[in-house]
C-alpha cells in the first residue's frame, strides 16, 4: 500500500477520540502529562481531608494549565514521548483534544522533520510557532490487535511510505528486496538514462561482435577474446533454461537469427514463443547496471586467477 505521508505504530490514547482528523495542527512534547515529581526519594503523609483536597486541587490546576496552554496555541493533536494517566487522558477528551502517547524518539524526530513541528520539552513553551501541520491523520487497523496512525500530506516534506505486508517474514523480506531493486533501477536511470534491451539480446550481440574480433586475432589475444565471448553466452543460456527451453538449441537459434536478420534486439521470449523482439516487447534494463554486472564478473574472474597463481607458486616451492 502506497501512502502519501508517514506511518507510526501507535493509536489514539482514548477509544472515544475521533479516528480521523482533518486540518491537523499537532504539538510534539517530550515531557509527561502529569504533575512534576522530585528526582529524590520523598514521602507525603495525608492526615486529613483538607490536605487531600489541597493535593487534588494542585493536580487539577496543573492539568488545566497544561491543557489551556495546548488549546491556546491552536493545537488539536498532542503527540507525547511519555505517557499520561487516566486523569490527564480524560481531561484531554473533555477538551476535545486528541492525543497519542508513548511515541518513540525516532518517530518524534521523523514527525518533526515532515510536519515542521518543533520538539517542545515543557508545556509553557508551547506556542503557535512550535506546531506542525498535516492535512489528514487517521487510525487504521492491520488486524484485530495491531493499529497504526497514518499521517498524510505533511507540510514540510513530500515523503512517501510503502506499507508491506506478508504471511511470513521471508515474504516480507523478499518484497523489500524487490522494492529496493526497483528503486536502484530508477536511481541508475537518473544518473544515466541510456538503456540496453534484455532477454539476453545484448549479451549475445556483444558475444558475436567479440567473436568476430577473436576470429581476426592470433595467439593469446585470440584465446582471451574467444573465452570472453563464450562467457557472455552464459546469461542467455540460463534464461533459456529457466524458461523451460533447451539452452543450447535456443542459444544458437537466436544467434543465427541475429546474424541473418541483422536484428540485435532478438532475445529469449519467456511467454512461449522462444524468440522475441525485446524492443517491441519493451524489455530493457539500464546501461549502468549492465556495465556494473560485467565489470564485477571480470574483476571476480581476475581475482580467482590470481589465487590460482599463488597456489601454483606454493606448489612449486
Primary descriptors:
two-stranded antiparallel sheet; single chain; 7-stranded mixed beta sheet; alpha/beta; 10 helices; 13 strands; 317 residues
Topology (elements, then pairings):
Elements: E1 2-3, E2 5-8, E3 20-29, H1 49-73, E4 77-80, H2 86-94, E5 98-100, H3 105-115, E6 119-120, E7 132-141, E8 147-154, E9 161-162, H4 169-191, E10 195-197, H5 201-215, H6 219-232, H7 234-242, H8 247-261, E11 266-269, E12 274-277, H9 278-281, E13 284-286, H10 287-316
Parallel strand pairs: 3-4, 3-6, 4-5
Antiparallel strand pairs: 1-9, 2-8, 3-7, 7-8, 10-13, 11-12
Provide an overview of this structure.
The protein has 317 residues and is an alpha/beta fold. The protein has helices at 49-73, 86-94, 105-115, 169-191, 201-215, 219-232, 234-242, 247-261, 278-281, 287-316, and strands at 2-3, 5-8, 20-29, 77-80, 98-100, 119-120, 132-141, 147-154, 161-162, 195-197, 266-269, 274-277, 284-286. The strands form four sheets. Strands 2, 3, 4, 5, 6, 7 and 8 form a seven-stranded mixed beta sheet that branches. α5 (201-215) packs antiparallel against α6 (219-232) and α7 crosses α8 (247-261). The two termini are 63 Å apart.
Amino acid at each position: 500500500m502506497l501512502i502519501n505521508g508517514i506511518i507510526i505504530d501507535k493509536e489514539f490514547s482514548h477509544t472515544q477520540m475521533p479516528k480521523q482528523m482533518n486540518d491537523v495542527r499537532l504539538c510534539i512534547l517530550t515531557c509527561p502529562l502529569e504533575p512534576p515529581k522530585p528526582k529524590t526519594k520523598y514521602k507525603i503523609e495525608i492526615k486529613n481531608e483538607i490536605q487531600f483536597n489541597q493535593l487534588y486541587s494542585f493536580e487539577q490546576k496543573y492539568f488545566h494549565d497544561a491543557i489551556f496552554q495546548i488549546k491556546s496555541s491552536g493545537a488539536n493533536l498532542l503527540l507525547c514521548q511519555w505517557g499520561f494517566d487516566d486523569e490527564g487522558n480524560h481531561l484531554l477528551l473533555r477538551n476535545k483534544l486528541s492525543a497519542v502517547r508513548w511515541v518513540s524518539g525516532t518517530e518524534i524526530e521523523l514527525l518533526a522533520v515532515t510536519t515542521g513541528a518543533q520538539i517542545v520539552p515543557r508545556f509553557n513553551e508551547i506556542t503557535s510557532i512550535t506546531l506542525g501541520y498535516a492535512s489528514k491523520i487517521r487510525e487504521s487497523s492491520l488486524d484485530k490487535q495491531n493499529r497504526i496512525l497514518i499521517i498524510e500530506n505533511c507540510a514540510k516534506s513530500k515523503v512517501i511510505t510503502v506499507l508491506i505486508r506478508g504471511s511470513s517474514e521471508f515474504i516480507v523480506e523478499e518484497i523489500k528486496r524487490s522494492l529496493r531493486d526497483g528503486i536502484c533501477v530508477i536511481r541508475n536511470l537518473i544518473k544515466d538514462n541510456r538503456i540496453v534491451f534484455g532477454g539476453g539480446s545484448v549479451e549475445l550481440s556483444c558475444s558475436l561482435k567479440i567473436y568476430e574480433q577473436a576470429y581476426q586475432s592470433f595467439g593469446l589475444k585470440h584465446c582471451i577474446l574467444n573465452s570472453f565471448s563464450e562467457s557472455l553466452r552464459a546469461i542467455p543460456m540460463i534464461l533459456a533454461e529457466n524458461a523451460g527451453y533447451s539452452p543450447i538449441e535456443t542459444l544458437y537459434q537466436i544467434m543465427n537469427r541475429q546474424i541473418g536478420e541483422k536484428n540485435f534486439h532478438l532475445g529469449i521470449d519467456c511467454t512461449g514463443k522462444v524468440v522475441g523482439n525485446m524492443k517491441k516487447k519493451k524489455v530493457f534494463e539500464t546501461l549502468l547496471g549492465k556495465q556494473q554486472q560485467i565489470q564485477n564478473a571480470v574483476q571476480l574472474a581476475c581475482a580467482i586467477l590470481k589465487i590460482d597463481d599463488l597456489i601454483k607458486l606454493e606448489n612449486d616451492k
